[in-house]
Amino acid sequence: MARYKRILLKLSGESLAANAKQGIDTQRLSEYAAQIKEAAATGIEIAIVIGGGNIFRGLSGAGKGFDRVKGDQMGMCATVINALALSSALDAIGQKNRLFTAIRMEPVGEFYTKWRAIEAMQRGEIAILAAGTGSPYFTTDTGSSLRGIEIEADAMLKGTRVDGVYSADPEKDPAATKFHDITYAEVLARGLRVMDITATAMCMENNLPIYVFNMDIPGNLLRVLRGEDIGTLVHN
Q1: What is this structure's pTM?
Q2: CA separation for the pair 17, 57 (Å, rounded)
Q3: By the number of CB atoms within 10 A of the CB, which of 9, 61, 150, 202 ranks highest?
Protein backbone atom coordinates (compact mmCIF):
# COMPACT_ATOMS: atom_id res chain seq x y z
CA MET A 1 0.00 0.00 0.00
CA ALA A 2 2.71 2.49 0.99
CA ARG A 3 4.72 4.15 -1.77
CA TYR A 4 7.88 4.21 0.39
CA LYS A 5 9.76 1.61 2.40
CA ARG A 6 11.54 4.04 4.73
CA ILE A 7 10.82 7.71 5.41
CA LEU A 8 12.18 10.60 7.41
CA LEU A 9 9.24 12.52 8.86
CA LYS A 10 10.03 16.15 9.73
CA LEU A 11 7.61 17.71 12.19
CA SER A 12 7.35 21.39 13.07
CA GLY A 13 7.77 22.44 16.68
CA GLU A 14 5.44 25.37 16.07
CA SER A 15 2.72 23.01 14.84
CA LEU A 16 3.07 21.02 18.05
CA ALA A 17 2.03 24.14 19.96
CA ALA A 18 -1.19 24.39 17.90
CA ASN A 19 -3.11 27.61 18.58
CA ALA A 20 -1.18 28.33 21.77
CA LYS A 21 1.83 29.37 19.63
CA GLN A 22 4.25 28.07 22.29
CA GLY A 23 4.62 25.03 24.50
CA ILE A 24 3.05 21.66 23.71
CA ASP A 25 -0.64 21.18 22.95
CA THR A 26 -1.50 17.70 24.29
CA GLN A 27 -4.35 17.23 21.81
CA ARG A 28 -2.09 17.96 18.84
CA LEU A 29 0.58 15.70 20.33
CA SER A 30 -1.90 12.84 20.66
CA GLU A 31 -3.11 13.37 17.08
CA TYR A 32 0.46 13.21 15.78
CA ALA A 33 1.16 10.03 17.75
CA ALA A 34 -2.00 8.38 16.41
CA GLN A 35 -1.08 9.26 12.81
CA ILE A 36 2.44 7.89 13.27
CA LYS A 37 1.16 4.63 14.75
CA GLU A 38 -1.33 4.32 11.88
CA ALA A 39 1.50 4.79 9.37
CA ALA A 40 3.78 2.32 11.15
CA ALA A 41 1.03 -0.32 10.96
CA THR A 42 1.52 -0.40 7.17
CA GLY A 43 5.01 -1.82 7.70
CA ILE A 44 6.89 1.31 6.65
CA GLU A 45 10.08 2.20 8.54
CA ILE A 46 9.87 5.65 10.12
CA ALA A 47 12.43 8.05 11.54
CA ILE A 48 11.31 11.41 12.93
CA VAL A 49 13.01 14.75 13.39
CA ILE A 50 11.01 17.39 15.26
CA GLY A 51 11.84 21.08 15.58
CA GLY A 52 11.97 23.10 18.77
CA GLY A 53 10.57 26.48 17.74
CA ASN A 54 7.60 26.15 20.10
CA ILE A 55 10.05 26.27 23.01
CA PHE A 56 13.18 28.11 21.88
CA ARG A 57 14.73 29.07 18.56
CA GLY A 58 18.47 29.65 18.62
CA LEU A 59 18.60 32.21 15.81
CA SER A 60 15.94 34.43 17.36
CA GLY A 61 17.71 34.09 20.71
CA ALA A 62 20.92 35.36 19.12
CA GLY A 63 19.00 38.41 17.95
CA LYS A 64 18.11 39.14 21.56
CA GLY A 65 21.66 39.02 22.88
CA PHE A 66 22.27 35.30 23.41
CA ASP A 67 25.60 33.92 22.31
CA ARG A 68 24.79 32.18 19.00
CA VAL A 69 26.45 28.89 19.89
CA LYS A 70 24.77 28.70 23.29
CA GLY A 71 21.48 29.81 21.77
CA ASP A 72 21.66 27.01 19.21
CA GLN A 73 22.50 24.55 21.98
CA MET A 74 19.39 25.73 23.82
CA GLY A 75 17.44 25.10 20.62
CA MET A 76 18.85 21.56 20.46
CA CYS A 77 17.63 20.96 24.01
CA ALA A 78 14.20 22.25 22.97
CA THR A 79 14.03 19.57 20.27
CA VAL A 80 14.87 16.95 22.89
CA ILE A 81 11.95 18.11 25.06
CA ASN A 82 9.60 17.76 22.07
CA ALA A 83 11.10 14.37 21.20
CA LEU A 84 10.54 13.15 24.77
CA ALA A 85 6.93 14.33 24.61
CA LEU A 86 6.37 12.51 21.31
CA SER A 87 8.06 9.37 22.63
CA SER A 88 5.82 9.42 25.69
CA ALA A 89 2.70 9.91 23.55
CA LEU A 90 3.70 6.94 21.38
CA ASP A 91 4.36 4.83 24.47
CA ALA A 92 0.88 5.67 25.75
CA ILE A 93 -0.77 4.13 22.68
CA GLY A 94 1.49 1.09 22.49
CA GLN A 95 3.75 2.18 19.65
CA LYS A 96 7.36 1.08 20.19
CA ASN A 97 9.91 3.82 19.67
CA ARG A 98 13.49 4.71 20.47
CA LEU A 99 14.89 8.16 21.17
CA PHE A 100 18.32 9.11 19.85
CA THR A 101 20.20 12.35 20.50
CA ALA A 102 22.96 13.95 18.45
CA ILE A 103 24.75 15.00 21.63
CA ARG A 104 25.44 12.58 24.47
CA MET A 105 22.52 12.76 26.87
CA GLU A 106 22.18 9.31 28.39
CA PRO A 107 19.86 8.24 29.99
CA VAL A 108 17.54 10.72 28.21
CA GLY A 109 18.25 9.03 24.89
CA GLU A 110 20.80 6.89 23.09
CA PHE A 111 23.68 8.57 21.29
CA TYR A 112 22.72 8.63 17.60
CA THR A 113 24.48 6.58 14.96
CA LYS A 114 23.10 5.69 11.56
CA TRP A 115 23.34 1.97 12.22
CA ARG A 116 21.57 2.02 15.59
CA ALA A 117 18.74 4.07 14.13
CA ILE A 118 18.34 1.70 11.17
CA GLU A 119 18.44 -1.34 13.47
CA ALA A 120 15.66 0.20 15.58
CA MET A 121 13.50 0.83 12.51
CA GLN A 122 14.09 -2.69 11.24
CA ARG A 123 12.80 -3.96 14.59
CA GLY A 124 9.58 -2.04 14.00
CA GLU A 125 10.42 0.85 16.32
CA ILE A 126 9.96 4.52 15.46
CA ALA A 127 13.40 6.18 15.55
CA ILE A 128 13.06 9.68 17.03
CA LEU A 129 16.18 11.71 16.19
CA ALA A 130 16.66 14.70 18.48
CA ALA A 131 19.16 17.53 19.05
CA GLY A 132 19.53 18.48 15.41
CA THR A 133 22.96 17.79 13.96
CA GLY A 134 24.61 18.29 17.34
CA SER A 135 26.40 21.38 16.01
CA PRO A 136 25.48 25.09 16.07
CA TYR A 137 24.59 27.13 12.97
CA PHE A 138 22.47 24.31 11.53
CA THR A 139 18.68 24.26 11.56
CA THR A 140 16.48 21.24 12.18
CA ASP A 141 15.66 21.41 8.46
CA THR A 142 19.33 20.75 7.76
CA GLY A 143 19.32 18.11 10.49
CA SER A 144 16.38 16.43 8.76
CA SER A 145 18.15 16.47 5.40
CA LEU A 146 21.31 15.04 6.92
CA ARG A 147 19.49 12.29 8.81
CA GLY A 148 17.28 11.41 5.85
CA ILE A 149 20.34 10.97 3.66
CA GLU A 150 22.24 9.05 6.34
CA ILE A 151 19.49 6.51 7.05
CA GLU A 152 18.93 6.05 3.30
CA ALA A 153 15.29 7.16 3.42
CA ASP A 154 13.25 6.99 0.24
CA ALA A 155 11.86 10.45 0.94
CA MET A 156 11.49 13.17 3.53
CA LEU A 157 7.89 13.92 4.43
CA LYS A 158 7.69 17.46 5.77
CA GLY A 159 4.60 17.84 7.92
CA THR A 160 3.61 21.49 8.24
CA ARG A 161 0.49 23.56 8.88
CA VAL A 162 0.01 24.31 5.16
CA ASP A 163 -0.92 21.81 2.46
CA GLY A 164 2.09 22.18 0.20
CA VAL A 165 4.45 24.65 -1.44
CA TYR A 166 2.99 27.93 -2.71
CA SER A 167 4.29 30.74 -4.90
CA ALA A 168 4.01 33.02 -1.85
CA ASP A 169 2.97 32.68 1.79
CA PRO A 170 -0.72 31.62 1.53
CA GLU A 171 -1.36 32.96 5.04
CA LYS A 172 -0.37 36.44 3.86
CA ASP A 173 -1.09 36.45 0.11
CA PRO A 174 -4.55 35.23 -1.01
CA ALA A 175 -3.31 35.16 -4.62
CA ALA A 176 -0.63 32.57 -3.84
CA THR A 177 -0.85 29.45 -6.02
CA LYS A 178 0.01 25.92 -4.98
CA PHE A 179 2.50 23.73 -6.83
CA HIS A 180 1.65 20.07 -7.49
CA ASP A 181 5.37 19.42 -7.83
CA ILE A 182 8.44 21.59 -8.18
CA THR A 183 12.17 21.05 -8.70
CA TYR A 184 14.83 21.98 -6.19
CA ALA A 185 16.39 24.28 -8.77
CA GLU A 186 13.12 26.20 -9.12
CA VAL A 187 12.70 26.39 -5.34
CA LEU A 188 16.15 27.99 -5.08
CA ALA A 189 15.62 30.28 -8.09
CA ARG A 190 12.28 31.55 -6.75
CA GLY A 191 13.61 31.89 -3.20
CA LEU A 192 10.78 29.75 -1.82
CA ARG A 193 11.16 28.87 1.84
CA VAL A 194 10.47 25.15 1.68
CA MET A 195 13.54 24.68 3.87
CA ASP A 196 16.68 26.70 4.37
CA ILE A 197 19.18 26.85 1.52
CA THR A 198 21.65 24.42 3.08
CA ALA A 199 18.96 21.78 3.64
CA THR A 200 17.56 22.23 0.13
CA ALA A 201 21.00 21.95 -1.46
CA MET A 202 21.78 18.78 0.51
CA CYS A 203 18.57 17.10 -0.65
CA MET A 204 19.17 18.21 -4.23
CA GLU A 205 22.76 16.93 -4.30
CA ASN A 206 21.82 13.61 -2.73
CA ASN A 207 18.56 13.15 -4.66
CA LEU A 208 16.32 12.96 -1.58
CA PRO A 209 12.77 14.00 -2.57
CA ILE A 210 10.65 16.01 -0.14
CA TYR A 211 6.89 15.80 0.12
CA VAL A 212 5.33 18.81 1.86
CA PHE A 213 1.85 18.34 3.33
CA ASN A 214 -0.45 19.44 6.14
CA MET A 215 0.22 17.14 9.11
CA ASP A 216 -2.30 18.97 11.29
CA ILE A 217 -5.26 17.22 9.62
CA PRO A 218 -5.66 13.75 11.18
CA GLY A 219 -5.23 10.98 8.62
CA ASN A 220 -3.11 13.01 6.21
CA LEU A 221 0.11 11.07 6.87
CA LEU A 222 -1.55 7.83 5.82
CA ARG A 223 -3.06 9.55 2.77
CA VAL A 224 0.42 10.62 1.65
CA LEU A 225 1.75 7.10 2.10
CA ARG A 226 -1.15 5.75 0.04
CA GLY A 227 -0.18 8.06 -2.80
CA GLU A 228 -2.99 10.60 -2.52
CA ASP A 229 -2.15 13.98 -4.04
CA ILE A 230 -2.64 16.28 -1.06
CA GLY A 231 0.68 18.15 -0.96
CA THR A 232 3.68 19.15 -3.07
CA LEU A 233 6.56 16.96 -4.25
CA VAL A 234 9.97 18.66 -4.39
CA HIS A 235 12.47 16.75 -6.52
CA ASN A 236 15.34 16.95 -9.03
Answers
A1: 0.94
A2: 14
A3: 9
